[in-house]
């Protein structure tokens, strides 16, 4: 039965790719919810498989990809950077503190013609590139198998991950990683955990490690289609097309959101937000966020630096945590949140009014309004290790936080406590997507209309 289900889903995904090129984002969760009835998560092996509608293809292809920050073990593909006199470069061979443009084609010797770069995902110590034909290439550190390229410890040149379905997202964690396919499947690889660190983060029912991408069969058995995935330190969070949040892996610090701190070998629903109709998830090193349809954020996991935004009482406690999802209130109360993001030990949110709120990093333990951005409307946000990028409605990027690795893109390694405009991207281009790793950044632009 398991093999039959997998074959059906692969056949459906292959059929759809013959008629269109895939973008790296699935449609809004509401699109799926309106198309098919709710399915309850079940452990039964026999379920009704309902094909989700195909994603809507993008009307405009990305024009360029810009990357900056520190390239550790090839996280920034320096050999693919174009020479451009309008874009300055720091003298170091390993640190690109200014914007630098990547080639807008991706040639493989065994295939004819050029394939465009569609998406770039920055992780803890690696980078994943998804091409316009749905193939995924990775580069960077593979110390724990987190790139899925076998026993090779690192690669500075893109290596192809042989996944049978088109890839729409990659989440590269510090110890393990996951790929989300257009058919709603998840492939995981890397370190499977231990009895000391916690086990089950790969979702395969054991603490075995996998050196190459391996499909999470439990999702197929339960009839679940994934729409998003996040890999933390030793835990994984998944969002289904039905708005249900699933977690697995280490239970320490309450990072699974189910009160108990025991490990989970398989993906299990976060019961206390099962009726919340979640539309977006985000996560950091050891905590998670879930945004529901009503614009309310729930947070759980480690809270030693205020990264949950729920306050920390009178003192900072290195063992502070929330083992069940808690709503983030404070100054966000009464506002509708539309976007969330999480970094190493901090997080951020964008409201329907275009306001940006941040918290964590021991700066503030509750949401703080970034008043320096009230002159413009913020539409998206991304967080890395101790820094934040905000995107406004005009396609301009603002950065703030610690800049020692060059991630702020401000031609300096200084830190800033307030958002500053990132300059250097050509005036005829606008940023449409951002991705933040621990020490490097990628932005995708398109030509202005």
UniProtKB/TrEMBL annotation:
- InterPro entries recorded: RCC1-like_dom, RCC1/BLIP-II, Reg_chr_condens, Ub_ligase/GEF_domain
**Which controlled-vocabulary keywords does the entry list?**
Repeat
User: RCC repeats span which residues?
Assistant: 134-183, 184-242, 243-294, 295-353, 354-394, 395-447
Pfam families in the record: RCC1 (PF00415), WD40_RLD (PF25390)
PROSITE patterns attached here? RCC1_3 (PS50012)
Domain RCC1-like residues, every copy: 64-365
Protein name listed in UniProt = RCC1-like domain-containing protein
What organism does the record attribute this protein to? Cyclotella cryptica
């Amino acid at each position: 039965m398991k093999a039959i289900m997998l074959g059906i889903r692969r056949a459906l995904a292959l059929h759809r790719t013959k008629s269109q090129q895939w973008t790296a984002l699935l449609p809004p969760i509401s699109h799926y919810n309106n198309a098919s009835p709710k399915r309850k998560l079940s452990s039964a092996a026999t379920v009704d498989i309902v094909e989700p509608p195909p994603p809507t293809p993008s009307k405009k292809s990305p024009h360029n990809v810009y990357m900056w920050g520190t390239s550790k073990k090839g996280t920034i593909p320096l050999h693919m950077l174009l020479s451009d006199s309008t874009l300055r470069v720091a003298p170091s061979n390993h640190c690109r503190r200014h914007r630098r443009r990547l080639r807008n084609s991706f040639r493989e010797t065994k295939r004819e013609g050029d394939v465009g770069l569609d998406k770039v995902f920055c992780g803890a110590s690696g980078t994943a590139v998804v091409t316009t034909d749905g193939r995924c290439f990775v580069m960077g550190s593979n110390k724990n198998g987190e790139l899925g390229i076998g026993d090779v410890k690192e690669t500075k040149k893109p290596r192809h991950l042989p996944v049978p379905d088109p890839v729409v997202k990659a989440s590269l964690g510090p110890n393990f990683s996951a790929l989300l396919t257009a058919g709603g499947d998840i492939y995981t690889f890397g370190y499977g955990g231990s009895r000391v660190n916690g086990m089950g983060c790969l979702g395969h029912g054991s603490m075995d490690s996998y050196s190459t991408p391996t499909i999470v069969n439990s999702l197929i058995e339960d009839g679940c289609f994934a729409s998003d995935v996040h890999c933390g330190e030793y835990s994984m969070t998944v969002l289904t097309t039905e708005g249900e949040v699933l977690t697995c892996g280490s239970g320490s610090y309450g990072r699974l959101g189910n009160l108990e701190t025991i490990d989970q070998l398989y993906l299990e629903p976060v019961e206390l937000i099962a009726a919340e109709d979640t539309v977006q998830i985000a996560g950091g090193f050891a905590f998670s966020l879930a945004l529901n349809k009503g614009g309310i954020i729930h947070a759980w996991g480690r809270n030693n630096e205020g990264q949950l935004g729920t306050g920390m009482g009178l003192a900072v406690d290195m063992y502070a945590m929330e083992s069940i999802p808690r709503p983030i209130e404070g100054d966000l109360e009464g506002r509708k949140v539309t976007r969330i993001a999480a970094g190493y030990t901090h997080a951020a949110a964008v409201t329907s009014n275009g306001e940006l709120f941040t918290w964590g990093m021991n700066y503030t333990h509750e949401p703080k309004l970034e008043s320096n951005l009230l002159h413009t409307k913020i539409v998206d946000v991304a967080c890395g290790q101790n820094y934040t990028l905000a995107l406004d409605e005009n396609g301009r990027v603002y950065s703030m936080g610690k800049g020692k690795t060059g991630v702020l893109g401000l031609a300096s390694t200084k830190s800033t406590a307030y958002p500053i405009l990132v300059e250097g991207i050509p005036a005829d281009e606008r940023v449409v997507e951002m991705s933040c790793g621990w020490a490097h950044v990628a932005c995708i632009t398109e030509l202005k209309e």
